[in-house]
Amino acid sequence: LVRLPHFAWLFQWFHCNNTHWFECLEPGLVSSFCIPNCANFTKAGEQDAVRCDTQTQLIRRGCKREEIISPENNLKIVQGDSLSTLSNQPEPVQLSPQKISLRQRSGHSTTFSVSFKRAEGYPVDLYYLMDLSYSMKDDLKNVKELGKDLFAALNTITKYAQIGFGAFVDKTVLPYTNINKEKLLKPCDENDQHCQAAFGYRHVLNMTPSEDEFKNKVTEQSISGNLDSPEGSLDAMMQAAVCGDKIGWRNSSTRLIVLTTDAGFHMAGDGKLAGILEPNDKQCYMENNLYSKSSEMDYPSVGQLAMQLEKNNIQPIFAVTKEVENVYKQLSKMIPKSEVGVLSSDSKNVVQLIKSAYNRLSSKVTLTHDNLPANVRVVYTPKCDHAGPPGDSEGVCDNVRVGQEISFDVTVTATSCMEDKSFTIRPLGIKDTLTVTLSTNCECQCVDPQNSSHPHCTGKGQVSCGICSCSEGSIGQFCECSIGAKDERTLRASCQRQNGTECEGRGDCVCGRCKCHTTESGSSYHGDFCECDDEHCEKFLNKLCGGRGKCNCGKCECDGGYEGSACQCRVSEEGCRTLNNTVCYGRGTCKCNRCECREGYQNPRCQTCLGCTDPCQTKLNCIECLGFESGPFKKNCTVACSKSIYHEMVDQSTIQSRKCQQKDSDGCWIKFNLDQLVGEDNYKAEILKQRDCPEPPSVTAIIGGSIASVALIGILLLMLIKLLIYMKDLKEFRKFENEKKKSKWAEVR
């Protein structure tokens, strides 16, 4: 990727089968233009990247309008069946168009309109899923009588209504259900005669338009029971969603699940309480109308359930009691196209609740998409009376009446190259879909001359999209270089510095040597590998080299009297002068009227060195040999020390800067003072004439002490031995006394 001069364009090369292609991209997603046919468009030293520019600039540079290639976005409606008014067709159309093909520039957007109209009398499939735990006993009695009212309510919506029925309690394992054999068969109170065995989920009635069949099947149902309060409602809803052929869902219908319960729900992870570790796999396991894996597979997660409901276009209505209303409202937020209604204590209002919830669901149209290809963005802009805000995940129109036509503007943007990538747009809860097939124009549509020995390519190649594609044995921008005995790889390697980029990306490798491009200002890159330019030196006061020097290969060459990395300073040593009229005490250099000290020395004048080794220790050997002719440097003292230390033997020191007291090789204490002179290793030393040497040890005292110590140790050992013998004798004596007391003497008569 190369940044072009003066513009925010990007230029990208593609090389395939010795053919070059261009792609012009712009980060701001504004059109750019390619010019593949202007063979003489680039001047000597110019990059081929100048072919990508705005149309106005290209024409200004001399390119003919007919030689400019700028692919346009193209939209094709592959299938656009008209919207249906009534649902008397086998497959009424509620969304148009149905298939669209897009071909557009990478980074550019295409907007198209999608229309929706809910067909009047559209079929409705309602699956009544009821909690049959013991707390719902009173509700079951009323549900057995609501078949007539429920069908009557649906008939006001459509004449193509069907109703199914299912029931659930919970998994038949501890701790959810009492697994005592008798309790499994009759989990209700002993006085309750109408009680069915414990079960997880049971499908009772397939979708049917018959009111009598619904009433008969529901009447046969009886209450059951379990131990804990949450129920297995998510298990039941998952099976009702994925077992479509067993439930009897129609292909073209509004699908509703009405869940009635007075308790919360178990979810993924709760199965661990019963030792159930296998996660829910979202598959159908219905045998003899019972969920056969209820005791083997964990509950589904809310996300899994939401995904399957959306995939199968099912809209849930939660008819729950007041106590758990908030729980199901939170659940509804995570499941698209769902509603919550509050049941009365005996479920008498369930029909009105279903009707109200259906009206809310059907009047809200949400257009969204499934998984998008990578680097594709879709934005929905609703066009209706009660439109929601534009969004990149969905578009919403509310209060939409049956038969009212609404539309959405859909904007598709692809930011990378792709070919025939598809995604689906659909209204939530509706079967109708729009399939969008997306491709991008990442290649210029060049009309190349057929001459294989084109003059522009020195007769040794052909022009392909304005670039020379050289014949075998020739290379170069205009095929002007013959390879000869060398191969192309060897020639190109000679244009790379330290196995890096060819000509540093700033030139072309021509016959094994770099031919440098021009810079933005019109000057040229230079150097054997085009590594140098004269435009990127340091600036001062927004001027290159402060306007007081010349930029050469990234470094400033200052005019006389100026110095610094940007020629920002006058040559002067005033700020570096010390009290003894030296420059930085000889421990640094003066640049820009400031001292640049050697390592360890501190500004402003490099006088002190906080990180240096203590000279009292480093100079001890020299002090010893210079002052007392002893120590390690005794034999070569003049050579080792005379150049770094000027010394003087004194009775009393006058130097106060560094006072030292060190022990020499003879064990004597030497006192001396140091003063650092100009330079790094240059000292003046004043050495006191008198050393403090310790007195030698007394031999007599040592011998006497040793003898006394041996004698004392001997006496202590004898006392210890005597003590041990005494303790042993004492022990034996006490033992004898004890045995004596135990003895019995016979009296002699």
Task: Summarize the structure in words.
It is found in: Cell membrane. One of its GO terms (molecular function) is amyloid-beta binding. Helix 6 (233-242) packs parallel to helix 8. The longest helix is centred in the last third of the chain and has 44 residues, at 699-742. The protein has 749 residues and is α+β, with helices and mostly antiparallel strands. The strands form 13 sheets. A six-stranded mixed sheet has the order 4-6-21-20-16-18. It is built from 15 helices and 39 strands.
How much helix, percentage-wise, in residues?
A: 10-25%
Lateral strand order in the biggest sheet: 4-6-21-20-16-18
| Mean pLDDT over all positions | 84
Outline type? flat
Described by strand count, sense and barrel closure, the largest sheet is: 6 strands, mixed
Counting DSSP E segments of at least 2 residues, the number of strands comes to 39
Stretches with pLDDT under 50, minimum 5 residues: 1-39
Radius of gyration (CA) equals 49 Å
Beta-strand percent range: 25-35%
Disulfide bonds: 24-63, 34-52, 188-195, 243-284, 384-397, 417-660, 442-446, 465-503, 470-479, 481-495, 509-514, 511-545, 516-530, 532-537, 551-556, 553-584, 558-567, 569-576, 590-595, 592-637, 597-606, 609-612, 616-625, 622-693, 641-668
Organism: Cyclopterus lumpus
GO cellular component, one term: focal adhesion
GO biological process, one term: leukocyte cell-cell adhesion
